[in-house]
Amino acid sequence: MPDPQSSLAQRLHAAARSFVKWLVIAAKWTGRMLRHLGIALLVFGRALYNPAFARAFNRGFDPTSPQGETGALPPAAPAPLPIKTVPAAPLATLDKAPPDSALLLLGLFQKEARLVDFLQQDVADYSDQQVGAAARVVHQGLRRVLDDHVTIAPVRTEPEGGRVTLPAGFDPAEVRITGQLVGEPPFRGTLVHGGWRATELHLPKVVSGRDLGILAPAEVEL
After folding, report:
1. Phi/psi at 165 (nearest 5 deg)?
2. Which of 17, 69, 70, 136 sits 20 to 30 Å CA-CA off 1?
3. CA dist., res. 42 & res. 40, Å (int)
4. Within a 10 A sphere around the Cβ of 154, how many other Cβ atoms?
5. Distance (Å, whole) CA 185 – CA 170
6. How far apart are CA 86 and CA 168, in angstroms?
7. Strand locations in the chain, DSSP E?
8. For residues 193 and 158, what is the distance between their CA atoms, to the nearest angstrom?
9. Quick count: other Cβ atoms within 10 Å of Cβ 108?
10. Contact 70/106 with Cβ under 8 angstroms?
11. Concatenated DSSP letters for 117-169?
C-alpha cells in the first residue's frame, strides 16, 4: 500500500512545478498588462467626469488629441492633388520612301560625277595621289548636280563654334544633341555643325515607263 505522505508530496511537487511555469509566463506579460491597466483606468476616470471626452471616445478616434477634449470631429483627410498627365507625343509613322526621286538623283550623280564607278572601285591598289585626283573629279560633278537640282540652306545660321540656345520644344530632327544631357530645356551648348536642309528639289522630268533602276546603261562598242 503506497505511503499517503509520499503521494501527497509528489502531488505538491507537481503543482509547484506547474505554478512556477505559469508564474514565469505571467511575469513576461505583467509589465505590459500593468501599463494597459493604467491607461484603462485613466481613460475611465476622464470619461466619468468629462462628457465631451466620453463622446469623443465613443466616436472611435483618439480622445487624447486636442480635438478629443472639445468633442470636435477629426479633420478630414485632404483631398488628393490631381495628377498632371502629360499627353503622350503621337507615335511617328514610318512611311515607305518613294524610290523614284532617289534613283533619279543617284543616276544624275553617276552621269555627272561617275559616283557609282568611284564607289564600286577598289582603291586599295591606288596611291593617295591617284585617289585624290579621282576624288576631285567626283567632287566637281557632285557639286554641279547639287547646284543645278537641289537648293540647300543651313539648319542653323549661327557661326560654328559659337554658343547657341535650344528652347523648349525644339525639333530633335533639326538638332542632334551630343554630350551629357542634364535637366530641362532651354539648353545651351556649342554649335559644332550648322547642319544642312534641302529647301527645294528640281529634278528633271522623265519619260513615262523609264526604268529608273538603270543608273547607267551598259556601253557596247561596235
Report:
1. -120, 130
2. 17
3. 5
4. 12
5. 9
6. 15
7. 150-154, 163-166, 187-190, 196-201
8. 10
9. 22
10. no
11. HHHHS-GGGS-HHHHHHHHHHHHHHHHHHHHHHEEEEES--SPTTSEEEE-TT
Q: Map grid coordinates 494597459 to a residue.
A: 36
pLDDT in tens, 15-69: 555 544 555 555 555 555 555 555 665 655 665 556 676 666 666 555 455 544 4
Q: What is the pLDDT of residues 88-134, one digit of tens each?
A: 556 666 655 566 888 999 999 999 999 999 999 999 989 999 999 99
Which among 65, 69, 35, 38 has a CA at the least distance from the CA of 52? 69
d(CA 106, CA 146): 11
Task: Report the distance separating Cα 76 and Cα 98, nearest Å.
Answer: 64
Residue keyed to cell 463622446: 55
Which residue type occupies 14?
A
* Alpha-carbon span 10 to 157, nearest angstrom: 108
Identity of the amino acid at 43 = V
**Backbone angles phi and psi of 44, in degrees to 5:** -60, -45
Residue pair 212/203 in contact by the 8 Å Cβ criterion: no
Read off the C-alpha cell for 91: 507615335
Cβ-based burial of 64 (10 A; exposed 0-12, middle 13-18, buried ≥19):
middle
Q: Are strands 150-154 and 196-201 parallel, antiparallel or unpaired?
A: antiparallel
